[in-house]
Structures are given as C-alpha cells and as structure tokens.
C-alpha cells in the first residue's frame, strides 16, 4: 500500500478472514492492477471514501466503485477472478513442455493415435499446465521452434525404411506394375 494510508484492524465491510486474505495476497508479486483492486477494498473497509481512494491510488472512479461494491457484498475473494488484458502468457515451462510433447509420440503419453495435432497438444497442455491457447497459436509456436505436427519427408523416409526392414513381404505381380506391401508386427 502507498504511504500515508492507514488500514485499521476492524473494518466496515470485510470479515477478519477476508482482510487477512487480502493482506496476505498483497505480499505476493502481483501485477499493479491486481494490487490496486486489493488496496481499494482494504481502504474502503478502513472507512476511506471513494474520492479519497481515487486520489490516493490514482485510479478511475468506476474502478474504485466496482471494487468497493465487491468488498461490500462479501466478494473480496474474487479480486483475481476477472482477468485483465490478454490471456495468460505462454511461459518458458509451456514452451519446453510443448517441444517435449511434439518430439515424442502421443502413444508415449497414453493416447491411441500416432501423431499429435495442434488440437490435441493444446488439450494436453491445458490439462497439464492450465494454459489454454488456440490451435493456430500452437501451430505458430511449433513452427517457431522448427517443429510441426505434419509428416515431414524424414518421417516418411523413416516409415519406408522401417517397412523395408520388416520380415513379411507380399508381392502382387498380376498387376501391370508389381506392387509390394510390407507388414510389421508393431
């Protein structure tokens, strides 16, 4: 909180639990906008008027009015439920996990399909890390890392090589061009 603003132990709107929760939340590393929300509610609880709060925190009347109402109606715990700005940014952990997943078969993670799609990568990462992004953004991230969910010529060459290494070969020669099929026991 800014200097010169006193917050008393007994308040007008908040319960002791809510007040303690908000004070504890202030100690965390918060975006300035979230910090302002908490400060507005604590100042209102301490008896400061909307005008005094706006002057002390340099915030808009509408912002102060909204968060004062949240404190008055017992909804102070919702200070972080209305996200602001763009959705959660993709962090380094997300990028590393995306790269790891895209570099391995989905079967390694219990899925029945052989290749990842952007949709399935997004679903898996949303469940695992709680960050949802569009399929298009997943594709852009993969491209920026030099990865793709599509079959590459190396993948096709590897599949052909693996097929040639199989023990069962069936040749159909009654066609105009001979056709060989390779079966693997995989």
Can you describe what's shown?
This protein has 186 residues and is mainly α. Helix content is 48%, strand content 5%. The chain is built from 8 helices and 2 strands; from the N terminus they run H-H-H-H-H-H-H-H-E-E. It has helices at 16-26, 32-45, 50-57, 61-72, 92-102, 118-129, 135-144, 153-164; strands at residues 168-172, 179-183. Strands 1-2 form a two-stranded antiparallel sheet. Strand 1 (168-172) and strand 2 (179-183) form a beta hairpin. Helix 2 packs antiparallel against helix 3 (50-57), helix 2 (32-45) crosses helix 4 (61-72) and helix 3 (50-57) packs across helix 4. The protein is elongated, with a radius of gyration of 29 Å.
Short description:
The protein has 186 residues and is mainly α.
């Amino acid at each position: 909180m800014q200097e010169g603003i006193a917050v008393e132990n007994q308040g007008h709107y908040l319960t002791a639990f809510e007040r303690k929760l908000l004070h504890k939340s202030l100690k965390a590393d918060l975006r300035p906008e979230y910090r302002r929300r908490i400060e507005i509610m604590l100042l209102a609880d301490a008896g400061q008027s909307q005008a005094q709060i706006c002057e002390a925190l340099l915030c808009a009347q509408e912002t102060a009015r909204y968060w004062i109402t949240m404190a008055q109606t017992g909804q102070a715990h919702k200070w972080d439920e209305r996200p602001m700005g763009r959705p959660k940014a993709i962090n380094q952990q997300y990028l590393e996990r995306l790269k790891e997943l895209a570099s391995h078969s989905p079967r390694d993670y219990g899925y029945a399909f052989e290749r990842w799609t952007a949709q399935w990568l997004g679903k898996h990462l949303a469940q695992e890390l709680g960050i949802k992004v569009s399929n298009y953004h997943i594709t852009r991230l993969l491209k920026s890392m030099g990865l793709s969910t599509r079959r590459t010529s190396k993948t096709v060459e590897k599949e052909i090589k693996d097929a040639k290494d199989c023990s069962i070969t069936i040749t159909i020669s009654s066609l105009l061009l001979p056709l060989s099929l390779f079966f693997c026991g995989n």
